[in-house]
Design a protein that fits this description.
The protein is built from 16 helices and 35 strands. The protein is of the alpha+beta class.
Length: 678
């Protein structure tokens, strides 16, 4: 028996899916998250799903532990050893402001100045040694950091991407004196030319290393106590998995672990349904994550900024996050304008209707008032709250301040504002990057995503909405279908005309070999090894770079020039033949594809009805933009494969509710996915 568990920890719920690949059966669980220790929620989910720990083959875990640690600044005390004269690079940054058009805002470097220590050494921009490393300075710096109670240390020298000999020597000295493995060498983590971004990435890695290490140790101990004896795989932000034994070494690569798993599930599911161009839309209880899939491949970026002055330059699935979830609070600002989010009611106390003493109106409360949610079918409701109470609190706190007549008008306004916010996020990952949304399908998941998907697709002109069989646990499904993946980047940063193509080939070959070696050492069973190359280029004098894939096995200057000009035209519709191209970075993704998981096993084992009318569970008044309409309610699990009908409709299932607007056409494909045509 081969059982695979995917478990995703969100801000509100911990989702779990258990696949039995031999019987092609599935068990799911959804339990409240335990922010004080996410391991507790994971174990509760395993228990809820009835998992037999001794028979589990693999556990894959998507986590928000590192993301939350950064955002909440619950990080470890970190020290920096850097080149003399450059201790303030991480604080000076790019000389931007938190708010470009205002004088407000603040920034606090994650490493205090007194813990940023300098040593004498110097390598120039060509990699030539100007001043030899002063080893006595290094030893003195290490002793000073240890006396200051520092738990993790960064080694970050000027131009180390060109020549890392001084960083390597320093690392050897530090290892002799440092009491733990939390040592980050900047050029080993990111070998690129930007000193600030490379240093910040290293600083973030060091700050969350101990946090992640302790959490993984606790979780592994709990699993071991339960009878699980195999390795734990952890989702990375690039959409791949990595062994828990090495995950904390590059802890920064897990920062977008949770959102990445959803995008991977979307890519896998959409490709099975015949969609290779998809905008992903994941709305949970706390936030909304949107991403892009082009030609079946999730878009990856190496320029993520998790918050102001905190850039992370490691490859991650390109996901944009906004504070818009089912628990997002609705409130009136000092200017008398309605705001929705980013503050959230979270898991505790949650929306008013959850009955956990929540008193502030949320998006979920608005959907309930508008008839979109069934008050008797809400998950995790401790003490049901009368609908009239929800209406009263919403009108008192929001409606009255806006001059609206009743709670229904207030709830409709909240939904409109929330949809506007989320539509803006969808435009950022599509239109703002040169893609026409009309060429894509919208893949809607998360507990709240299908409630708003059709309205968002209508706003952006997206012709089809795809809702997977289990929207509320899609992130957990993503953990199961994700591949083992390792990404590498090396800077060249020379004019293309001067680039040594033999050197390019050597770097690519070294990246491939490193990735293969690590995958083999992890002991994860894979069916296929996939290699993806891409490059960063820019025109001379430009600040920003353009990333694009390369497919040739043997690159030439001419082929790179042609590919760059094509990518530039596709993005900006501009030709600049008179300006020299610069080859900046070389990227390689080494991917180990695991055995495919049959999506049909996600289809609920209930009696499917041949007639649509037999799937109907009731009728209720539901608000749409065109007004209130009498709307049939369908049970998703009863819908047969290839079923087809028109809206308006509400489709209910255990983990979500799906809104189908008037005249929308709904079809069920062979994997149980809903395809809604606008």
């Amino acid at each position: 028996m081969t059982q695979i568990v995917g478990v995703d920890v969100g801000g509100t719920f911990t989702d779990l899916v258990l696949f039995d690949t031999e019987t092609e059966s599935v068990k799911i669980a959804k339990v409240p998250s335990t922010p004080e220790n996410q391991a507790f929620g994971v174990m509760q989910a395993l228990e809820s799903a009835g998992a037999t720990m001794e028979t589990l083959n693999t556990v894959i875990h998507g986590t928000t532990i590192t993301t939350n640690a950064l955002l909440e600044r619950k990080i470890s005390r970190v020290g920096l050893i850097t080149t003399q004269g450059f201790r303030d690079v991480l604080e000076l940054g790019r000389r931007t402001r938190p708010k470009p058009y205002g004088m407000t805002g603040s920034f606090e470097c994650i490493i205090p100045r007194e813990l940023r220590l300098e040593v004498r050494e110097r390598v120039d921009c060509d990699g030539e040694i100007v001043e030899e490393l002063n080893e006595a300075d290094v030893r003195k710096a290490v002793e000073q950091l240890l006396e200051s109670g520092v738990e993790a240390v960064i080694i970050h020298f000027l131009h180390s991407y060109k020549n890392d000999i001084h960083e390597r020597k320093t690392e050897e000295i530090v290892k002799e004196l440092w009491p733990n493995p939390f040592i980050t060498r900047g050029s080993a983590l990111v070998s690129e030319f930007r000193e600030y971004e490379r240093g910040t990435t290293a600083a973030i890695n060091a700050a969350i290393q101990p946090v992640l290490h302790r959490y993984i140790e606790r979780l592994q101990q709990k699993l071991k106590e339960g009878g699980y004896s195999r390795d734990l795989l952890v989702m990375q932000g690039n959409g791949g998995t990595v062994s828990s034994g090495i995950v904390s070494t590059d802890a920064v690569k897990t920062v977008m672990s949770g959102p990445a798993s959803g995008v991977m599930a979307a890519a896998y599911t959409a490709s099975k349904s015949g969609f290779d161009r998809v905008v992903t839309y994941d709305m949970g209880g706390t936030s909304c994550d949107v991403g892009l899939i082009v030609n079946g491949i999730p878009q990856v970026t190496s320029e993520l900024e998790i918050e102001y002055a905190m850039p992370i330059h490691v490859p991650m699935v390109d996901v944009h996050t906004i504070g818009a979830g089912g628990g997002s609070l609705a409130w009136v600002n000092d200017a008398g304008l309605l705001q929705v989010g980013p503050e959230s009611a979270g898991a505790q106390p949650g929306p008013i209707c959850y009955g956990r003493s929540g008193q502030k109106p949320t998006i979920t409360d608005a959907n309930l008032i508008l008839g979109r949610l069934n008050p008797e079918a809400l998950l995790s409701v401790d003490n049901p709250v009368p609908l009239e109470t929800v209406r009263k609190l919403m009108q008192e706190q929001v409606g009255a301040a806006l001059g609206l007549e009743n709670a229904q008008e207030t709830a409709a306004a909240i939904i409109r504002i929330a949809n506007m916010n989320m539509a803006g996020a969808l435009r950022l990952v599509s239109l703002a990057r040169g893609h026409d949304p009309r060429d894509f399908a919208l893949f809607a998941f998360g507990g709240a995503g299908p409630l708003h998907a059709v309205a968002l697709a209508k706003e952006l002109g997206i012709p089809k909405v795809l809702v997977p069989m289990r929207p509320g646990i899609t992130n957990a499904v993503g953990c199961v279908v994700a591949e083992v993946r390792h990404d590498y980047v090396n800077s060249i940063n020379v004019p293309l005309a001067q680039a040594e193509m033999d050197q390019v080939d050597e770097i690519f070959a070294e990246q491939i070999e490193t990735g293969k070696t690590i995958i083999e050492s992890e002991g994860v069973e894979i069916e296929e090894l996939i290699i993806i190359h891409d490059v960063d280029m820019q025109f001379q004098g430009q600040t920003h770079i353009l990333n694009f894939p390369v497919h040739e096995t043997k690159l030439t200057r001419e082929s790179l020039q042609t590919a760059f000009e094509k990518a530039y035209w596709n993005r900006f519709e501009v030709e600049l033949p008179e300006i020299r191209a610069v080859l900046v970075n070389l990227h390689t993704a080494v991917i180990g594809r695991r055995k495919p998981v049959p999506l049909t096993s996600l289809i609920a084992e209930t009696e499917q009805k041949t007639q649509i009318e037999d799937c109907k569970t009731g009728i209720r008044q539901v608000w749409f933009e065109s007004g209130w309409k009498e709307t049939p309610i369908y049970k998703r699990e009863s819908l047969s494969l290839k079923a087809s009908f028109k809206g308006p409709a509400i489709i209910e299932q255990l983990d979500t509710t799906i809104i189908v607007e008037p005249d929308n056409k709904v079809e069920v494909d062979l994997d149980g996915n809903l395809i809604i045509s606008l």
